[in-house]
Design goal:
21% strand; 4-stranded antiparallel β-sheet; Ribulose 1,5 Bisphosphate Carboxylase/Oxygenase; Rossmann fold; 3-stranded parallel β-sheet; 224 residues; alpha/beta
């Protein structure tokens, strides 16, 4: 695979044999970011788990102290909490009409919240929303009666994370335009949340490696 001149120059800045401190990595990520848009900074965490075992599935939530530079579009499925959801800033609120829209292919939202009372009926959306990570789930805080708080936190920067089939968590933690201290703060909060989500069944090393990257840049290994 041919590597572009841009990428060749960027890679010269990175010592592949070095594990960078978080602060060093953030400075380097910002230095090598060269796209014409504000690149997203992503944290990738390789976990020492067996993705084939359901009791070792890792998922959870983290409230980024400084947001991630993009406001989430929130859909709330409810019949009795519509006013609360709208006042909290939800983009769309309702039930029957949105069930039909989603079944017809509408997926313009980033997060779907549902009240427990509608989940039995909303379950029919599982095959559509599940593979996309959009299905409301109590563990992710998206099945709740407190829809006002849920919507407000998501708008402020609450993120859901979940391990993929290879045992890796990918999580946006901000933009390259963020001040260093805000990126560092977000990343520390994300790592702490992933540590807190460790299943009791996991023995040995939980977090095997940590990497930072920007949208158009290579990854940089950081200290755990």
């Amino acid at each position: 695979m041919k590597i572009s001149k841009r990428m060749e120059e960027i890679k010269k800045e990175i010592d592949k044999d070095k594990t960078y401190t978080l602060e060093e990595a953030v400075k380097l990520i910002k230095k090598i970011a060269s796209a014409k848009f504000d690149e997203t900074v992503e944290l990738s965490v390789k976990l020492g788990v067996d993705p084939r075992k359901s009791d070792q599935m890792v998922r959870g939530m983290v409230l980024m102290p400084h947001g991630v530079g993009k406001e989430k579009k929130v859909l709330v499925l409810t019949r009795d909490k519509q006013k609360e959801a709208l006042e909290a800033g939800a983009n769309w609120v309702g039930f029957d009409e949105f069930i039909e829209k989603i079944q017809n292919g509408w997926l313009e939202f980033d997060v779907c919240i549902a009240t427990p009372s509608v989940m039995k009926e909303a379950a029919k959306l599982g095959k559509i929303l599940g593979p996309r990570g959009l299905m409301p789930n109590p563990k992710a805080g998206t099945v709740t009666n407190d829809v006002g708080s849920a919507v407000s936190e998501i708008k402020k920067g609450r993120m859901e994370f979940r391990m993929d089939k290879t045992g890796i968590i990918h999580l946006p933690v901000g933009k390259v335009s963020f001040p260093d201290e805000k990126l560092v703060s977000n990343i520390k909060e994300a790592i702490a949340a992933i540590n807190s989500a460790k299943p009791k069944e996991i023995k040995g090393t939980y977090i095997k490696s940590l990497y930072l990257s920007s949208t158009m840049g290579p990854s940089i290994m950081i200290e755990g």
